[in-house]
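Quick one:
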Amino acid sequence: MKIKTLSHYSFLFFLMLLFCETARTQGNASWGIDFKGYFKSLSVVSETFQDERYFLDVSRLRLQPTVRYGENLVFRLELDNQFLVGDYLKTEEFEYVKKIPSRTWLDMDQTVIDDDNFYWKLIFYRAFLSYYSDWADVSVGRQRFAWGTGKFFNPTDLLNPYDPTQIERQERTGTDAVSLDFHLGTITKSSVVYAPRSTWENSSLAGRFKTTIKSYDVSLLFGKFGRNRALGFDTYGYVGDGGIYAEGAYTWNDEKCDFFSFVLGGEYRLPNGLYLDGEYFYNGAGKSKPDDYDWDRFLSAEILALSQNYFNLSLGYDVTPLWRVEDYTIVNLNDQSLFTAPNVSYSVTSDLFLDFGIQFFAGAEQDEYGTPSNVYYLQLQFFF
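Output:
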């Protein structure tokens, strides 16, 4: 990325802040701005798929200004300056990762510096304009659609799929789209989303209906997602003191590769504070034998699960108000491989958090969770 291009991004960003702050200080009640963000340092030690041992530090400065005009018009921006250092930058795996096409339609993200010792990328994590009214809301730009109730896998989250084994599970790639939400009542909403791509075949157009029946939230989904068509549902409700959820989608396309995937799960918090979440996932697009796994599509993030049957378990316990321990486990029931990620977090202050975690992969070399190497990480995050 040229310095000239970088200066344009920086100028537009700070011009927006200056303009809104000027309007606020001059007493214009129509304008308002909130500014927050965080700085994170994530240090990782592991090995690549070529058995190259590496160290990588990912530092991210996320700036999150929200600009409001009146009560109806809101612009939200989440801009990342992401810095990478470490010998991972010299590996073949990193060269491969950089060539993976972006899932977003607009080419807004820019690489500022790319060399063997330092990598700096400017990322528009979120950037969208919303207009709110009594009967409908419309949003345009890079946004997140949190569809589905599954805690590990989401068969209906076809606009924002993610890898459940990633360290930062809360990070979800946004979608460049136009969305329209109709308010059909206090508990009922209907949504339409259009996510364009370079061609109509690769674009997505979906509708979702959500309501509440007694104590259960219920959603229905129908749409075109690239070359696929999908009909889905999800629900969440309570049985006693615990929550239960289900989610499923039937997918078909012109190549007759039809499949059905679904999730069944439940969560419960014991009287001693221990949190439990168990989930079964059936992946109709997966294979029952490791020899049939499509590793090329998996490594390029086209698919996020290789096998058919999974059992997932999440545990969490607050040892003290400052210390929390968690574990996050996925078992591939077909090849018997295992992924588990214990984590210890500490609240240094109300704004500063420290996390230490390990990701263990166990299985035969050809298994889904037998191939990756274990990951050891330390994360420091400060919110402002």
